């Protein structure tokens, strides 16, 4: 369809200081405007309806409470189901996208502007994106960062991850805080009715599902990379090399880099790696990593932790912390909406200081269920939940949150040094 407009315009000069004078015609110019617009089509046949020159709502997020949220899509297309959680971080969306702990979840960013720094391959925390989808308020139409190699939408499309924007993330966050984490279905398929999507959300559950087996490595490997010198800190005082076996429940690369920078030689093993094989490798310490989902859904991992307690110093992070809690005889429970973000205040009871931490978990250890001798070392100041444990008799230490905290903050990075000191003490006694 083509529309042409021709309109003569009289170019005039006028004495604005004397408004009573009539304008004088100086010249006459004729111009034409041509507008082109394509007709939308279905199966190649024109429908006679003009396509808008801007993107319109083409996606829906249907939550299990019955609410339907219209949005615009970016990244991959299709239909996906997952648990919706909100993250309060202001930066680091690429680290969030590649954190395996988000497997099975839609991550809603409370920061309204996402995508303005693009993506780069140096900031990835794992080999791929494991989350179910990304929900944001405003998608940046341009990128501005000297490290950027790709736009966020292109990045998600290549990794087959769905994203939506132009949705009221504030209203959804308020609903999640009031009702707790909700299962939702994200779709770009108009053929699916709201009722069908609602039924999908109500028939799916993340509780009791082993998500670790889908994110762990398949065979042991050696990790050698340290933190890049440009980003390193707390790097003085590296001494003796300590051999560490790291159980991969969904481990982040920067946890491994920080351990390596502190002087550890690391072998990463799958989540199902037998404790007997670990002991044959004669490690100075064992790390139980972060990971997704319900710790009660992986009894084989709890069994492994039990078999290693007291035989070698152990350090648990996030999922590893929860598994240690269960292995010590305690219980874990699902939180209302979990902790997700880079701004959670934690009281370090041992050092008697407050640390700002990066957290990502939906489960917590019940301190009242722990046996005598197990110490609560850290408390989340937002809700008083247990954020760290120690059991000196068995050389156990753990944190509920992520001390490597990439991209930040780094208040708790010194805990890697504490793990070194724990291994050093046990090694000197041997």
Automatic annotation (TrEMBL):
GO BP, sorted A to Z: 'de novo' pyrimidine nucleobase biosynthetic process; glutamine metabolic process; L-arginine biosynthetic process; pyrimidine nucleotide biosynthetic process
Pathway recorded for this protein: Pyrimidine metabolism; UMP biosynthesis via de novo pathway; (S)-dihydroorotate from bicarbonate: step 1/3; Amino-acid biosynthesis; L-arginine biosynthesis; carbamoyl phosphate from bicarbonate: step 1/1
Gene Ontology CC entries for this record: carbamoyl-phosphate synthase complex
Q: Give an example GO molecular function.
A: ATP binding
Task: Give the keywords, sorted.
Answer: Amino-acid biosynthesis, Arginine biosynthesis, ATP-binding, Glutamine amidotransferase, Ligase, Nucleotide-binding, Pyrimidine biosynthesis
Which reaction is this enzyme known to catalyze? L-glutamine + H2O = L-glutamate + NH4(+)
List, for all copies, the residue spans of the domain called Carbamoyl-phosphate synthase small subunit N-terminal. Answer: 57-187
Q: How does it assemble?
A: Heterodimer composed of 2 chains; the small (or glutamine) chain promotes the hydrolysis of glutamine to ammonia, which is used by the large (or ammonia) chain to synthesize carbamoyl phosphate.
The UniProt function text for this chain reads: Small subunit of the arginine-specific carbamoyl phosphate synthase (CPSase). CPSase catalyzes the formation of carbamoyl phosphate from the ammonia moiety of glutamine, carbonate, and phosphate donated by ATP, the first step of the arginine biosynthetic pathway. The small subunit (glutamine amidotransferase) binds and cleaves glutamine to supply the large subunit with the substrate ammonia.
What PANTHER family does the entry give?
CARBAMOYL-PHOSPHATE SYNTHASE ARGININE-SPECIFIC SMALL CHAIN (PTHR11405:SF4), CARBAMOYLTRANSFERASE FAMILY MEMBER (PTHR11405)
Family membership noted in the UniProt record? Belongs to the CarA family.
Q: Per its record, how is this protein called by name?
A: Carbamoyl phosphate synthase small chain, chloroplastic
Give the species this sequence originates from. Populus euphratica
């Amino acid at each position: 369809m083509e529309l042409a407009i021709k309109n003569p315009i009289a170019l005039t000069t006028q004495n604005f200081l004397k408004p009573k004078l009539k304008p004088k015609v100086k010249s006459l110019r004729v111009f034409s405007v041509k507008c082109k617009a394509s007709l939308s089509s279905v199966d190649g046949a024109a429908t006679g309806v003009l396509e808008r020159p801007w993107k319109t709502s083409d996606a829906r997020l249907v939550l299990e409470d019955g609410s339907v949220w219209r949005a615009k899509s970016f990244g991959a297309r299709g239909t996906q189901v997952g648990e919706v959680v909100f993250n309060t971080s202001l930066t680091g969306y690429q680290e969030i996208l590649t954190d395996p702990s988000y497997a099975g979840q839609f991550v809603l960013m409370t920061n309204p502007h996402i995508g303005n720094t693009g993506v780069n391959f140096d900031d990835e925390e794992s080999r791929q994106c494991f989350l179910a989808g990304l929900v944001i308020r405003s998608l940046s139409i341009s990128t501005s960062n000297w490290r950027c190699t790709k736009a966020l939408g292109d990045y998600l499309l290549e990794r087959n991850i769905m994203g939506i924007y132009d949705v009221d993330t504030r209203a959804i966050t308020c609903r999640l805080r009031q009702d707790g984490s909700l299962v939702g279905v994200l779709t770009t398929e108009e053929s699916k009715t709201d009722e069908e999507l609602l039924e999908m959300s109500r028939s799916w559950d993340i509780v009791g599902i082993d998500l670790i087996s889908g994110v762990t490595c398949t065979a042991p490997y050696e990790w050698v990379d340290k933190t890049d010198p440009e980003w390193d800190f707390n790097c003085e005082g590296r001494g003796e090399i300590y051999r560490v076996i790291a159980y991969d429940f969904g481990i982040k690369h920067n946890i491994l880099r920080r351990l390596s920078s502190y002087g550890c030689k690391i072998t990463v093993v799958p989540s199902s790696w037998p404790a007997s094989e670990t002991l044959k490798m004669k490690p100075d310490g064992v790390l139980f990593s972060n990971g997704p989902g319900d710790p009660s859904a992986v009894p084989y991992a709890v069994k492994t932790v039990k078999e290693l307690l007291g035989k070698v110093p152990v350090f648990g992070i996030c999922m590893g912390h929860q598994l240690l809690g269960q292995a010590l005889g305690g219980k874990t429970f699902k939180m209302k909406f979990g902790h997700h973000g880079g701004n959670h205040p934690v009281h370090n009871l041992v050092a008697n200081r407050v640390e700002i931490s990066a957290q990502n978990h939906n489960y917590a250890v019940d301190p009242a269920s722990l046996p005598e001798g197990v110490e609560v070392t850290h408390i989340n100041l937002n809700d008083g939940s247990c954020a760290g444990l120690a059991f000196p008799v068995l050389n156990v230490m753990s944190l509920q949150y992520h001390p490597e905290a990439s991209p930040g903050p780094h208040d708790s990075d010194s805990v890697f040094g504490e793990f070194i000191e724990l291994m050093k003490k046990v090694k000197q006694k041997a």
